[in-house]
Write a structure and sequence with these properties.
This protein is α/β, with parallel strands linked by helices and 449 residues long. It has 14 helices and 19 strands. The strands form five sheets. It has a six-stranded parallel beta sheet with strand order 2-1-3-4-5-6, with helices on both faces. The chain has a five-stranded mixed barrel with strand order 15-16-17-19-18. The chain has a three-stranded parallel beta sheet with strand order 7-10-11, sandwiched between helices. The longest helix is centred in the last third of the chain and has 24 residues. The protein binds S-adenosyl-L-homocysteine (SAH), iron/sulfur cluster and FE3-S4 cluster. FE3-S4 cluster (F3S) binds next to helix 1 and helix 6.
Length: 449
Amino acid sequence: MKSVYVFTLGCQMNVYDSEQIVRLLHPLGYSSVDDPEKADLVILNTCSIRQKAFDKGFSFLGRIKKRKKDNFDVIIGVGGCVAQQEGENILKRAPYVDFVFGTSAIHRLPDLVRRAENGEKISDTTEDGEVIETGGNPNLPDEITPSGFVSIMRGCNNFCTYCIVPFVRGREKSRDPNDIIEEIKRRSLKGMKEITLLGQNVNSYGKKDDMPDFPDLLHMVSEIEGIERIRFATSHPKDLSDKLVDCFKDIEKLCSHFHIPVQSGSDRILSDMNRKYSVKHYLQRIEALRKVCPEIELSTDIIVGFPGETEKEFNDTLSLLKEVLYDNVFAFAYSDRPGTRAQSFENKIEDAIKKERLNNLLDIQNEITKNKNSAFMDKTVKILVERQSFTDNGTLVLNGRTFGNRIVHVEEPLSTLFENKKFKGEIIDVQIVKTLGHSLKGRLSEVKS
Ligand code: SAH
Ligand code: SF4
Ligand code: F3S
């Protein structure tokens, strides 16, 4: 048996794609290992969303280069969004790389790897417009985790002016709903309980292809036996329909969490970003969500220091954070991406100011998140246990998430009550005994009482 190590950067889409990469290579005799030093084939799945992510890919390659010197048999492949963007340039910049495959080439990977095994240097960034049949071979042994991702669409048509995704993932295309349902059923039969449906803008699922729309798909998924929790990401505010809002009332399995990227609290900046909604529209959507599901947890993405962002416009974003009171915020300093419209915008903001704004915003949000977390003190919550381990001194450690999206760590001193018990994959009651900045600490309710 040969071994493959996949190093994944970027978003959940890439995590999903990496899982498919491993599945696709299985029939070629490759099994997955978690140490690049031991692998016959090393694959880097890249991200290009910000310069930092782009650079991280090359620094991984710099580290792995040494292996090529030590062992001529190791094969190195580079896939993902940087691969799509840079193609052959990667082979020039890092000549020890054997093959490059773009985001549309994943299903051609078995052929590419066979050719690379025969010493061919390849760059395949052809966009065939296919939504890859990522279901793979159902007979293959899946490594089933309690919670997993399923991609329901590819690409993006929105062309937000700062964003590279439409350039590296191509045009939006929805996957056949039956195919999605089959894949989820297969996973649920093997014990998966939670599914996160993935797309750059799930709200436009099916729209152009005369298929069920996204709320219809959610209803279909909710009928799958064994699946107890459903999540999705990401949702564009401009397309958030009332029909989707109602799903939070009608679908019991739909987790009470909504990630709804706002990007900025200023209408002028939103317009320059080509986001196609106003702050007012956004706030109305939040209100509608909270009306049908008052306990809904909200998270968002923010970009600070977009070209031309004034101090006042930045303050408008801070005001929005204080008004919405998100449970979690992912904030980024604007990063110029090649080929995007914003790259040619004037009035770029200095790095030092971007950094200062980012820190300022994070300070405010950390306080909000901390306060929201502290409301969970002493409460009993249901978590799906995603990981279970024992420390050296015998403490049982469980990690999981609430029905919203809070991370909970449980630590229990060794006890005969659970010594041989399997918690991983179970939904259990946990009593919160401590609240932290970004997570909660709990004890097993049944053991305590
Ligand atoms: N499709 C998702 C987002 C995908 S990218 C959506 O529309 O919400 C994830 C996040 O990265 C974006 O929401 C944005 O906040 C951030 N991002 C994208 N391009 C960026 C750039 N050039 N600089 C800084 N942050 C960026
Ligand atoms: Fe990028 Fe905008 Fe598409 Fe999201 S919706 S992937 S931010 S272009
Ligand atoms: Fe990065 Fe590509 Fe995802 S650019 S964020 S890995 S779609």
